[in-house]
Amino acid sequence: MNKADREQQLDDELAAQLSQVDVPLYAGAAYFRQDDSHYYLAVSLVIPGSQIPFVTEKDKDNATIDIIGQVLEGGKFPVGRLRDTVKLTVDSTRQVRRKNIQYNTGFVLAPGSYHLKFVVRENQNGRMGAFEMDVQIPDLRKAPLKMSSVVLSSLRTPVAGKKAGPNPLVRDQMETVPNITHVFTADQHLYLQYEVYDAAKGKNPAPAANSQPDAANAAAGKAPRDSVRVLTSIEFLQGGVKVYESKPVMTKEVAAPERKAVVLEIDVPLGSLKPGLYLCQVNVIDDVSGNFAFPRFPVLIREAATSAGGKAGS
Q1: Where in the chain is the domain with CATH 2.60.40.10?
Q2: Which of 12, 46, 188, 301 is the most exposed, fewest CB within 10 Å of its CB?
Q3: What is this structure's pTM?
Q4: Is the pLDDT at 111 greater than 50, yes or no?
Q5: What is the C-alpha separation between 218 and 294, in angstroms, rounded?
Q6: Residue 230, SS3 per DSSP
């Protein structure tokens, strides 16, 4: 099969009503506001490493994957397209076959309803797989608390020399890699990243006369007289009972002024939580306007791996 035939095969599979599933594929998405009428939709594709026929050569595992995808507005009109070929070269000692292969991309879209479809092909045996999903990007102008998606992650990786572009998950030369399965191990950290837009500004309350100096009061003293005040904390619930709550964090800085975004980044070590299924609740309160949101997500924590080769990875 020559290059033209392979491209035609990908196009045909993208247009097919009944998709192939020889290669398992899963996808997740999160939206972040760029301006009132545009959002960045971060998309992650995940393939089990066990489904990729790696070829081992000189202590390296090698494979090539073709990826094609499209975004249809209202399920009909194409507004985004993806085509890429990914060459994977990994040290054999990393045991990539026991992990997941993750590909991250994104699209800039207007608020609305979208249908996304992605097709992958491993080029050793020519097997293919596809995944389709519907995504709703809300018009946050109508929301009391204007908030992005919440991204859960177990990995922050350096991206020195890489331009962030419109991707809000790349900040200060670090990229937050979404964990779309929400499966973690007890020896990992849960990183959460989310944003609040157009937070209300108000006068900062003066510290109590008898209060002890601490980091919060020090921050208040340095903050502008009129500033935002966004409070956030993380809770874990099991069987309707709260078993963990992080210390509340107050943010008074609009870290991404070009998008009027208060950026919230939380680090939760999972070592104190027993393995099991939890409901993770993210508490977000605009202390000036009084608006709030409490999104929830299922999170599975597994026992810590006994060896480096058994750790979960992407």
Answers
A1: 1-10+20-140, 143-314
A2: 12
A3: 0.88
A4: yes
A5: 28
A6: strand
CA gap 279, 72 in Å, rounded: 32
- Residues contacting residue 125 through CB under 8 Å, at least 6 positions apart: 53
- DSSP of 13-42, one letter per residue? HHH-SS--BSS--EEEEEEEEEETTEEEEE
Instruction: Give 104's strand partners.
Output: 44
Largest CA distance in the chain: 78
At the topology level of CATH, where does 1-10+20-140 sit? Immunoglobulin-like (2.60.40)
Backbone φ and ψ for 240, nearest 5 degrees, come out as: 80, 5
- End-to-end CA gap in the chain: 31
Smallest CA-to-CA distance from 249 within 296, 225, 282 is with 282
Report the topology of domain 143-314.
Immunoglobulin-like (2.60.40)
- Residue 283 φ then ψ, to 5°: -95, 125
Q: Rounded distance, CA 118 to CA 115, Å?
A: 10
